Amino acid sequence: MNACTTRTAPALTALALSTLMLAACGGGGGTSTGTLSLSVQDAPVDGADAVNITFSRVELHRASGETLNDILDSDPVAAGSQPYTVNLMDYQGVDRLKLLDGITVPADRYEWIRLYVDAAAIVFNQGQSNEVIEPLDIPSNENSGLKLHSGFSVAAGGVSDFTVEFDLRKSVHEDAKGYTLRSRLATSPARWEALRQATTARCMSTKARAPRPTTSATWTTAASSRTVRRRTA
Question: pTM (2 decimals)?
């Protein structure tokens, strides 16, 4: 018999609380694992030529209490190339970079994902004689990494595909001490409602064999709007 599970969890933003609903169908075929893909992309930041982020590891926390560490090690795309450095500005619009590509994880409900950053920098006038590279501080990184609080489910035999969008124009801040990346998560309610309805329709199917469930969503970092300009001495 097919089972349909739906989870609603709060997604924190810098301005308000929005609701992120993650839904998936689960089959009864005895499969206890599903596949997970995690991508990153960027909404551009004015005035910068590059925003380089070095990811050192990814953690997944199951509702059962177990934390899956060093997930990057299990991904053949990332394995052997850690730390994993990405220029977020290379992945805009429909372009995205997969940090995890179809890795096998236990079928379960997951409470959060953490992305740990080894280093981050913002670059101005890249490749020119007056090139400037400024460190990009991430306040939450040292203790808890970039934590995606929104819960989600990986269905047995299913495919879950998520994208984390760094809205750099809104998330990069400048003060007298330098540049800071302050990220919070949001999502499009309309986009997620369409996903919920499609998933519910699959769960109600009367077919003897349920289709392989697929879950996808985009998480967007958001903060108060700010134009970033290169600091002058």
Answer: 0.59
